[in-house]
Amino acid sequence: MRSSVLYFLIAVSGMVFGAEIVASHITQSIVLLISAYHMLYNILSLLLLVISHR
């Protein structure tokens, strides 16, 4: 996988993470908060993939 694609996926995942964090605070939803932290785990996994790709 090319690194530009990985960086794009990290950026999109970061935007989704931010949107879910904001939505969870507005609605006080635990489910959205858990989903946001799951997205953060996905972002960290993608970052490790970028590091290992080098």
TrEMBL record:
It is a multi-pass membrane protein. The lineage of its organism: Eukaryota, Metazoa, Ecdysozoa, Arthropoda, Chelicerata. InterPro entries: Cation_efflux_TMD_sf. It is found in: Membrane. The chain crosses the membrane at residues 28-51. One of its GO terms (cellular component) is membrane. It comes from Caerostris darwini. This is Uncharacterized protein. Its main location: membrane. Keywords: Membrane, Transmembrane, Transmembrane helix.
